[in-house]
């Protein structure tokens, strides 16, 4: 594939320097973008696991409310929860269950009975199609006085939304980088075709098919693309390793999961391979298309 | 060592006519026509000199034959195929049946003598072992056996011309077109090259040689296709064989 002899004088044109430099930059950016997407994917998986299964809603009693009013608010909360898509079951904890929950910290059950404790509703939610917690929280706040969803879940849900957006952004950046690389290869190839026009005419006149000439450009682009891709990946790797080490030093924070395992490195290693193949295919198709318009 | 040729290119009734021009005209851009109403046919196995003053259109006529241009008007058949309606994909197959010696050689300067001559074989997919056997043999014959690895910029005009000729004949073309092929060589080499062309002609190759060299034309006596003011005329040669052009 990397035969050095070519029928066209490629060694004397400017694409020899331009193409590897451009592919190196693109691979560097794409590797960082992909690693960002992988990190976010990891975090999202972990966070989604955390908010799967159950949820707690509390209804805080008001000093002026009667027991009847509080029970009405609990019933309304349960009704809203049961109407919410993704909620499988909602059940208010009894006073005994509530007392049992806090007895280890406060001791006597008699004392607990006198305290204005919030009423808790245990909610079972779908793993596969969980409810929109932010929307649910907003509705409960609007319709039931003193009702609220577990704050941590809400916060995490908002973070997940943000992370989803960022992951999408990272993938969009990768797609744009790939597109930009393909466009650059197309223009570099067109410039190469213009430079070698006379040599191409000679090849045509001795009976070369367009595909024969296109293969020479494709091999050239693969060789130059591979050089650039290796350089770009070699530059991106220490950056990722450094970021991973910094994240690990946070000791258990949210960013602790930034470090990559072997599987992640395999996925990242596909970036330079794909970049070199993309350069080859873009060059091949560009030459075929351009030569089809020549005699 | 003839490369693959499609059977479909060899089946027409007019195969005996290698070249047929009907009312062909050629102009460059918006200028006047350099060739006007050219009608001629070259029979298979014929040998012609192509003559005319400078600017008469010899190179233009040859370029139409080796399919570097399409005519502005008229119809051209090569090997019985209407090239004016031929698809782009068909061009390489027809071009592989034509050997061309250009006045300015058109060699690839970054390739060695051997690689330049091997070019028509490589593009036709001939095996490297075949190339390694036949190309040095031909280069020895044209006196360039010691320059197999030398690149054209290091060679004289005459040597480059011999490379161009070797490249044109290496795959034993059905039609050989040569533009001033003896212009840069001494008489001894010119005679040797002419005998190469005649030998190819005996093996069935149709030959057209554009030249100003009157002594050469007289010495070999083949009929002439003479271009004058954009038109064409035939001047019979002193030889009865090969066949003359038909008009």
What does this protein structure show overall?
The complex is a heterodimer of chains A (295) and B (247). Chain A has 295 residues and is an alpha+beta fold. Chain A is built from nine helices and four strands, in the order αβαβααβαβαααα. Chain A folds into two domains: 10-48 and 159-291, no CATH class; 53-129. Chain A has a four-stranded antiparallel beta sheet. Chain A starts with 14 loop residues before the first helix and ends with a helix. Chain B has seven helices and ten strands. In chain B, strands 6-7-8-3-9-10 form a six-stranded mixed beta sheet, sandwiched between helices. Chain B has a four-stranded antiparallel beta sheet with strand order 2-1-4-5, covered by helices on one side. Chain B starts with 16 loop residues before the first strand and ends in a 12-residue tail after the last strand. The relative contact order of chain B is 0.20. The interface between A and B is medium-sized, with 21 and 27 residues.
In brief, what are we looking at here?
With 295 residues, chain A is α+β, with helices and mostly antiparallel strands. Chain A has helices at 15-50, 67-83, 95-106, 109-114, 133-143, 151-195, 197-205, 210-248, 262-291, and strands spanning 54-59, 87-92, 119-125, 147-149.
Number of strands of chain A: 4
Total of DSSP H or I helical runs spanning 4+ residues of chain B:
7
Please identify the structural class of chain A as seen in this structure.
alpha+beta
Helical fraction of chain B equals: 25-40%
Q: What count of structural domains of chain A? A: 2
Q: Strand count, sense and closure of the main sheet of chain A?
A: 4 strands, antiparallel
Biggest interface, chains and residue tallies: A-B, 21 and 27 residues
Mean pLDDT of chain A, to the nearest integer, reads 85
Spans where pLDDT lies below 50 across 5 or more residues of chain A: none
